[in-house]
Amino acid sequence: MIKITFPDGNIREYPAGTTAYQIAQSISPRLAQDILAASVNGKVTDVNLPITKDADIRLHKWEDQEAKRTFWHTSSHLLAAALEELYPGIKFGIGPSIENGFYYDVDAPEPITEGDLKKIEEKMMELARSKQPLCRREVSKGEALKSYIEKGDEYKQELIRDLEDGTITFYTNGNFTDLCRGPHLPDTGAIKAIKLTSVAGAYWRGNENNKMLTRVYGITFPKKSMLDEYLVMLEEAKKRDHRKLGKELELFAFSQRVGQGLPLWLPKGAALRERLENFLRGVQKQYGYLQVITPHIGAKELYVTSGHYAKYGADSFQPIHTPVEGEEFLLKPMNCPHHCEIYKTKPRSYKDLPLRLAEFGTVYRYEQSGELHGLTRVRGFTQDDAHIFCRADQLKEEFKKVIDIVLYIFKTLSFENFTAQISLRDPQNKEKYIGSEENWEKAESAIIEATAEKGLDTVVELGEAAFYGPKLDFMVRDALGRKWQLGTIQVDYNLPERFDLTYTGADNQPHRPIMIHRAPFGSMERFVAVLLEHTGGKFPLWLSPEQAVVLPISEKYNDYAEKVSEILNNSDIRTQVDDRNEKIGRKIRDNELKRIPFLLIVGEKEEAQGTVSVRVQREGDRGAMTPDDFARLVKERVAAEVEQIKQ
User: Fold this and answer.
1) Is the backbone of residue 410 left (phi > 0), alpha (psi -120 to 50) or beta?
2) Among 221, 270, 257, 9, which Cα is nearest to 121's?
3) How many CB atoms are located within 10 Å of the residue 494 CB?
4) Residue 482 confidence (pLDDT)
5) Residues forming a β-bridge with 178
């Protein structure tokens, strides 16, 4: 007999070899019908895998992310099975689950286009209805290689060569067999609704020197009604796409001549960014941060010392060579090495700590062209970066203060649905990280304790730590329920060692400070993109690049419109004039589409009375008022927004 411990602490005994499905059946037949995966001692597994030793168990239904990942990973195998039937001779790369759905990278004997997706969906549904079991089989490395050599699939052969013998498994559903470690659903019957969403190109293993494969994206659900809801959300997401809104609202642009992934901030976008930066500067000032500025480049040796060159050299722009032999510079991939050098500009005492250095620092990373996406994935971006140098006895308190800053920002900008993710090392792959075991354990413990003391709702993700330390990542869900990573806080014992940072303690001896890396927005580019899609471009009044636009009914009233605009701008109300030679109805429609909060219409009557006719976005007409009265209205509303934030 084995002891099974449930999440509530309850313990039951079962015969060795009992499966998670059988355990669920012993509790309730309905539960057994609903579970899609199980976690056994923290590892997600098939529900029909025998459990041979005492174990902690969690049973996952659709509501759990572990269940969705298992469901969608099984769906990627279903897609591959359909493709193999429709395209004989097709070769397969990888087919993982993703945040919403799955994809499979394939090398097809003929092009697969958007027009082919319908027939592939139909074949998938046909196979799903046959309730094909997914059978797991352990194979030797030699057997696995032989199988794919016979098939002539060089992609799977390459994957197998990277695996250790004794760890390789195949899964078979119907006539399709795939190299996979799982987990999977017991059979395909649970898949009731299928939508293949797009086709794209993807370099094999993300390397642009490799062959371009075809990536087919899709999503599936256990009920058709869930798919219908998802498709409605997709349509709304298209309307909120930050690339579309950025163009409509004239916030940013891209130019092939400037270069891929290098955004150009237009005047309105620059104004939006400036307000966000000023907002954070104000918050940081209250918490004792000191603003610094560092260069956009640094000597290669700086990043060799920090470890960034070894870890990110392949993802950086190539070194800049000067006329001096052997002299090399890199575009800055991170701000932290520069801040370490600022710390070293003079001797530090224990009385000087904590030292909090903040910078809106622009960094550069050579993202592959296929990975670039609007503002969310770029090659040049500005981090709202700061580094706190503190003593060991200050670490937890400083970490908690940064959490307070992040939570205040999220509240201010209405990001109310979020999870704090504790990102730790991969215990099976520690060579990815720098630093001693002792320092890693201290850093990880500090984060876990600080989040517990703040009462944060947290999840733990192994293998998601930075190479120099663990971190706390804030995963935010937007208005459409999509998850984004925004703020991050990291604890680092390693860079202070690599840069030999010290302070003189109360004992008059040298001691090593600890670094906290933090970026509440993450990057200005990504944050603006997420904010755009979250709000649909309808920013709070205090943040709007344009708070009002004056609309003269005809050219005769352009001078009066300019006079009104001048009065309002002098009162710090951000105002423009739309003096295009268009009918007033067209001007109203166009400016409503630009999400400008207030439209001020002026004509003969308004000029004679010294007033404006006020139209409020989403509220309608507010009647006539003087420019001074209107300015007071705007300031009252901004003050109300600020007061609501404070509460």
Assistant:
1) alpha
2) 221
3) 23
4) 80
5) 171
CA distances from 289 to 282, 284, 410 (A): 10, 5, 19
CA distance 35 to 62: 7
**Would you place residue 618 in the very low, low, confident or very high pLDDT band (cuts 50, 70, 90)?**
confident
C-alpha–C-alpha distance, residues 307 and 310, integer Å = 5
In terms of phi and psi (left: phi > 0; alpha: psi -120 to 50; beta: otherwise), the region of 635 is alpha
- Give the predicted TM-score (pTM) of the model: 0.80
**What is the token pair recorded at 602?**
């002026």
Q: How confident is the model at residue 647 (pLDDT cuts 50, 70, 90)?
A: low
Tokens of 34: 């609903």
> 427: cis peptide before it, omega within 30°?
no
Q: Which residue has the tokens 């009920």?
A: 223
For 238-272, how does the pLDDT look when each residue is reduced to its tens digit (9 = 90+)? 889 999 999 999 999 999 999 999 999 999 999 99
> Is 633:619 a contact under the CB 8 Å cutoff?
no
With tokens 């025998």, the residue in question is 50
- On average, the pLDDT of the chain sits at 92
Q: Is the dihedral of CA 46, 51, 53, 55 positive or negative?
A: positive
Q: Say how far apart CA 144 and CA 149 lie, in whole Å.
A: 9
Q: Where are the beta strands (DSSP E) in 72-174?
A: 91-92, 97-98, 101-107, 135-139, 168-173
Write out the catalytic residue numbers. Answer: 336, 365, 383, 385, 387, 471, 517
Instruction: Enumerate long-range contacts of 73-76, CB under 8 Å, 24 or more apart.
Output: 73/97, 73/102, 73/180, 73/182, 73/183, 73/184, 74/134, 74/184, 74/185, 74/188, 74/191, 75/101, 75/102, 75/124, 75/191, 75/194, 75/218, 75/219, 75/220, 76/102, 76/103, 76/104, 76/218
Q: Are 126 and 102 in contact (CB under 8 A)?
A: no
β-strands 55-60, 2-5 pairing: parallel
Q: Is 304 exposed, middle or buried (0-12, 13-18, 19+ CB in 10 A)?
A: middle
At 356 the three-state DSSP class reads: strand
CA 546/CA 569 separation, integer angstroms? 11
* Neighbouring residues of 478: CB distance < 8 A, sequence distance ≥ 6: 415, 484, 530, 533, 534
Strand, helix or coil for residue 279: helix
Q: In this structure, are residues 487 and 522 in contact, taking their beta carbons and an 8 Å threshold?
A: yes
Q: Which among 331, 308, 311, 310 has a CA at the least distance from the CA of 319?
A: 331
Task: Quote the CA–CA distance of 229 and 482 in Å, as a whole number.
Answer: 14
> Encoding tokens for residue 217?
């994206």
In whole angstroms, give the CA distance from residue 387 to residue 469. 13
Other C-beta atoms lying within 10 Å of the C-beta of residue 89? 12
Alpha-carbon gap, residue 362 to 262, rounded angstroms: 11
User: Can you tell me the mean pLDDT for 147-157?
Assistant: 92
